[in-house]
Amino acid sequence: MKNKFISSFIFLYLFCAVLEARVEVPISDQMILQILYKNTWSYIDYFVNDLTGFPYDSHEKKPSTSLTNIGFYMASCAIASQTGLIPKEDANLKLKKCLHSLKLMEKWRNFPVTWVNAYNLKTTEQQFSTIDHLGNLSASLILVKNIYPELAPAVDEILSPMNWSILYEEKNHFYRGGYRLDKMDFDIKQPWGDWYYSFLGADTRLGSFIGIAKGEIPYIQWQSLNRNIETKYGQNYFVPGWQGGGLFMQFVSGLFLDERTTVLGKSAANFAYAQILHARKIQAKVWGWSASQAPTGEYLGWGAIKDEIVTPHASLLAINYYPNKVMGNVKELDKLGASSPYMEMGKKLNFGFRDSLNWKIGFVSSGYLALDQTMIFLSLANYLYDGMVWKNFKKDPMVQKGLESIEDYSRIDSQVLQVYQKRDQEEPNEHSIISLE
Length: 437
Known about the structure:
By secondary structure, the chain is mainly α. It has a single domain (about 1-425), classed as Glycoside hydrolase 144 (GH144) (Glycosyltransferase). The protein is built from 18 helices and 19 strands. The protein has helices spanning about 1-20, 25-45, 65-80, 90-105, 130-145, 150-160, 205-215, 220-225, 250, 255, 265-280, 310-315, 325-335, 370-385, 390-395, 395-405, 405-410, 415-425; strands spanning about 65, 105-110, 110, 115, 125-130, 170, 175, 180, 185, 195, 230, 235-240, 290-295, 300, 310, 340-345, 345-350, 355-360, 365. It has a 3-stranded antiparallel sheet with strand order 5-8-9. Strands 6-7-10 form a 3-stranded antiparallel sheet, with no helix packed on it. About 50% of the residues are buried.
């Protein structure tokens, strides 16, 4: 009882401190976001296997879960303790359990396999994913050890043996797509050609950053990434763009790295603004197009984004750019039932937003995805708590080295923040342009 009282006191104290420091949206809206933040954590904390400590991929509690789910869950645990949602001791136990399970997982050349059974730690898929290791898991573990230095030895025992140069292809300077455990070879012989990660404007960007920061791959890898642009409603942003997975692809790296004043942030901001303009054109009351599970159950990812299906995580990823625009969207999503309680054995549980919504017919998804909930949580943590994820991630000397050595991060445009603010306060306007030059 004492710990719960202390935890609640810390939560209220931090909340009040944030209200004094943040003025982008009214206090009443800040309170709505705080409730969403807390409810989203309730989902993250609820759908976890007690034995392994690993999160389930979704509310359905199916066995297979990914390293991205595991990493983002661990990052969320560490941040939840920092913001008073749970006692530090509880977070410590959760993180230790995950680290122990990661240590026990099957490895390929010191890399944990990508998909694992959350119940018994057996490998569930034979494909090893470069994305999950290079960006998502590694960034999350770096964040964890920066917040909990006492866990650094256990974290380094997993991170240090993973050598990213194994995944680097010198002939084209890209990361190879993945390794097939059953074929004992990289899975680069596909019907559409070789599989490499080549886009700057994708979720693999964080992996490129970490590989270069560690000194295990050369800087030319970053310079070789595809910087082609897609343009909608006068807004330029990096490919793969709208049908290349939607908004999350550009914003994932920005959960850990504050990219707002960089060309990477400008691209993400333009992408989100294009979606706001698109919603106006098609007369949709809500916006936010990104990979998600449709209300009918199918996964809408690469090449499958549909106008009528929006996902709440997409707009909330942009809250650090357009807080008022996102807040308006949050309210509309709520009106349409996207945050209706989850029912379990006749009991109502508030877990934040469902995964998707068909706004044309008012059909709301029945469930949630761990990835999308953790992205909402970490994005809100940065907004509500003065860049908490960014600041803790940046504490790491390796991260600092990466920020200094990669030109896209060392060359900033602080004036662009004023443009974001102006866009946030005005009606959507196709003539509002942010150059990527």
